[in-house]
Amino acid sequence: MQKYKDIIQYAIDREIEAELFYKELEAKVSKQILKEMFSEFAKEENKHQQILRGVFENKDQDLHFKPTVDYGISETVVKPKVSDQMTLADVFTIAMKNEERAMKMYNYLADDSTSDSMKKLFKELAAMEQGHKLKMENCYTDVAYAEAW
């Protein structure tokens, strides 16, 4: 049980990091539309934290995240280093790579789980992250390939 709680706490910590990442981006950008977008992303990460805290506290979590398509865009790019010279495409690359990592972590945990209820929980959390990854990939595609629009 302690290992399970350690895993959930690790996931909570990653969601906190993601929320802070988006809040930092929100503070750095000047365009209002980007501020609003990063603010929404931060709020979503906070919602993920709340879900995981409920799991950590053994509250019944009846999660139902709609599976989304996975275009695998994040798997085709290299995560850039954070710098003041990052482009918006770089920012979305970092974000989608982070979501990819979280999705894979939950899928690995589901695959390694011997409990059907834990397997279901981790699959739902992976679907949650996959949905967020899709949003980041769509944003990345819009800015990285603007000429296509």
Layout: helices, strands, pairs:
Blueprint: H1 2-28, H2 32-56, H3 88-112, H4 116-144
Gap from first CA to last CA: 50 Å
Order of helices and strands: HHHH
* Stretches with pLDDT under 50, minimum 5 residues: none
Shape: globular
On the 0 to 100 scale, the average pLDDT is: 85
The quaternary organization reads as: single chain
Structural class: mainly alpha
How large is the share of residues in beta strands? under 5%
CATH topology group: Ferritin
- Helix share, percent: over 70%
- The CATH architecture is Up-down Bundle
Number of domains: 1
CATH superfamily: Ferritin, core subunit, four-helix bundle
Instruction: Specify the number of helices.
Output: 4
CATH class: Mainly Alpha
**Which value, in Å, is the CA radius of gyration?**
16 Å
What is the total tally of β strands?
0
What kind of sheet is the major sheet? Answer: none
Which structural traits does this protein have?
0% strand, mainly alpha, globular, Ferritin, 149 residues
Summarize the structure.
This protein has 149 residues and is mostly helical. It has one domain (2-148): Ferritin (Up-down Bundle), CATH 1.20.1260.10.
